[in-house]
Amino acid sequence: MIWLTWRQYRVQTLAALAALAAVGIALVITGTQMRTAYDGDVAGCSTTCEAAKNAFVHEYETLAALVTGLLVVVPGVIGIFWGAPLIARELETGTHRLIWNQSISRSRWLAVKLTAVGLSSLAVTGLLSLMVTWWARPLDEITSNRFDPLLFDGRGVAPLGYAAFAFTVGVCAGLLIRRTVPAMAVTLGLFAAVQILMPYAIRPLLMEPVRAEVALAGLGMAAQEGRPAEGAAWSATDILLSGDGENAQVKVGLSRPGAWVLSDLGPVLNSAGEEMRGSAGCAARETDPLRCFAKSDFHVAVEYQPGDRYWAFQWIETAIFAALAGILAGFSAWWLRRRLD
């Protein structure tokens, strides 16, 4: 049975290994060049370090987006091209009956297919994730923005969970629909929907956020979007002035190196927790808000996830998708035994 599965999927497996090798060679070459540039221009800088960081990020940001995007789509591709046809093609052509008449039970038939092809999927995704995480480390050290939805999905162990989930979604879709192309389309739609839903609706609920009052005195503007000022614990990303006169209002958005800030822009509060408006709250068009904040005891309330929780989120999300993959595999086994003719 293992030999038969290998014969059926040897072309896809060899193609995946060839693509993985090509990508790996490209990542090693460009990653080595990136580290040489980082050591010379950023790590070794004595003056104008901020400009050196900006230039480094600007030089590699397009390539980094392509590399990260590649890892983000690979689990979906595995679900579409490996998971969906796994059972659907056999049912569509009727070859499953021939195999079942060769003293091979349905459960064994499914178990071998899920194990052999599923483990191959995880191996490909794991190796690619390892290479991409290594490749992007200099950029991640500068941007300190690993909770960004695209970066989070394209680093660490989370892609393994996504690959397992996408693969079993494809298997289930093929088993229920019994047609390869519709099953591939359903797999694509479901996986894309989950990948959008997870970072924006579910991930923020996985752990209770830390709540803090950030003093505005000494607050600086972020050096770049999503990247706080060098050496600062907190930086302002946005300062929004609205209204006029004594009803004018200032709202401040904050960032912290490595942290995931969940709060939107918050109003300026005094020591008693009351919102300050108008000139008394630095909300005047002729006023430089940062200079005004420096002379005040104002603060902004913020909710965030600290940077040291990054790996906790990675493992929790991986466990969730692995559990979903296990449930889908169990459902497939039950459906195959009880409902399939």
Q: How would you describe what is shown here?
A:
The protein is an alpha+beta fold. The protein has 10 helices and 7 strands. The chain has helices spanning 2-43, 49-93, 95-100, 106-135, 137-143, 149-153, 158-177, 180-202, 289-294, 310-338, and strands spanning 210-215, 220-221, 235-242, 249-255, 260-261, 266-267, 299-305. Strands 2-3-4-6 form a 4-stranded mixed beta sheet, with no helix packed on it. A 3-stranded antiparallel beta sheet has the order 1-7-5, with no helix packed on it. Strand 3 (235-242) and strand 4 (249-255) form a beta hairpin. Helix 1 (2-43) packs parallel to helix 4 (106-135). The model has no long low-confidence stretch (mean pLDDT 87).
Spatial order of strands in the largest sheet: 2-3-4-6
Q: Give the terminus-to-terminus CA distance.
A: 21 Å
Rounded to the nearest angstrom, the radius of gyration is 26 Å
Oligomer: single chain
Mean pLDDT: 87
Q: Major beta sheet, specifics?
A: 4 strands, mixed
Helix-strand pattern, N to C?
Answer: HHHHHHHHEEEEEEHEH
Amount of helix: 55-70%
